[in-house]
Amino acid sequence: MQLDQPLTEKEFDELDQFLLSDRSSDDAMTMDTLHGYLTAIAIGPETIMPAEWLVKVWGEDASATPKWKNAKEEEKIVNLIMRFMNEVLVTFEVAPKEFEPLFCEYEHNGDAVLDAEAWCWGFWEGMELRPGSWQPIWESDLAPLMRPIYLLGADEIEESELKEVDDPAKAHKLAQQIEANLPAIHKFWVPLRKAAVQTVKREEPKVGRNDDCPCGSGKKYKKCCGAEAGAKE
């Protein structure tokens, strides 16, 4: 299956069940938390490589890695997560206003209300990968658009702010605001987004200037290919 294919309903359920299973740690993300986490990574200020963000899906540290049955199962589950991420990336690239956060929904006093707390917690975890890099939006005119995510997702909020989230109706309105605000948050970062910094590993040992030239000429490197390389600089 190609990574650009969205998850089928069956695959979504399979990933959901795995994250909730005994083979994942108690701290592993649920699907709504994972969706918020991936959203922050997808639209945030820097490109973050999967090798860094994937470990946080399972828990707080490397010891939380799932108990895989075999390498094939690991490859399959990671593939599902990567495709879940690509759904987020593609939606923001093609139609950001159509993006739908994966909020829980339940009934309260006969009304269907949205619960965005787990999604926001995941988004906050995604921001915590690069907390300093997110600072510009908090200092911009768009700071109010981030406030609902803060109120529902931050580990701690001020006691005076509790009244803004102390009942399901208020939390529902905050969830609606978050969905409406995300396209603008995404747009803010597009021109500022930084690419991931990758370290290029030298596969072959560096040739010293006084070593024999690896081309086989019998000359010293500095008088053979090394001299040619110097002339190009």
From TrEMBL:
Family matches, as InterPro entries: SEC_C_motif, YgfB-like, YgfB-like_sf
Highest rank taxon of the organism: Bacteria
PANTHER family according to UniProt: ADENYLATE CYCLASE-ASSOCIATED CAP C-TERMINAL DOMAIN-CONTAINING PROTEIN, UPF0225 PROTEIN SCO1677
Protein's UniProt name: UPF0149 family protein
Taxonomic lineage: Bacteria, Pseudomonadati, Pseudomonadota, Betaproteobacteria, Burkholderiales
